[in-house]
Amino acid sequence: MSAAALRYHIKAALNKSASVQDFKMQLNHLVQRQDFDNATKALIRELEGGLPPDEPPNFNYNTQGTKSYTDLRRDLKQNLMPILNQDIKNKETGVIARISGTGLNKISSEKALNKSLENGFTKEEHFKVGADIKALFENARLGKTHEDYKGRADIKAVHRYFTEININGKKAQAKITLKESVQQGHRIYSLELEELSPLP
């Protein structure tokens, strides 16, 4: 490929990008093209490698007013419906997980909510953060993995992921629980809010 043609493609990729991360994604698409020779692909990879690392996202949340538990559950289901049973990839581990209707019900359950309430958060804060479960899991850090304490044959392991957040000016962490199933792979099972403490 000529230098002029490569410049054209790189400029087009840059024009489509709103951030460094977007530009990296555009370059990655270019590398997948069948009509690019290996030398061209190597140049694109070299360019990609010279870009600054992605900025870690800031998870800042604010809530206003109060809502009933019924309304909060309804709103959460509406927000998460588009991502139900869709692949969600954790950047640190490469693990691909999904959230099912069961997981959605668990996140919005009184049991999960009560854990957040016991940790000093409001029901509005719990549901506000829950609506962002996809981005939170994508950027979470794996804290610990253990066997299924209930000894269920289908559960290979339970994984706890953590993401630092700021909600209404309070530093906190979202704890996301994944169950690794023999049949269904990784499933996002629960979310609760905890006061920010040293991560395990």
From TrEMBL:
This is Large polyvalent protein-associated domain-containing protein. InterPro entries: LPD3. Residues 68-189 form the Large polyvalent protein-associated domain. It comes from the Bacteria. Pfam families: LPD3.
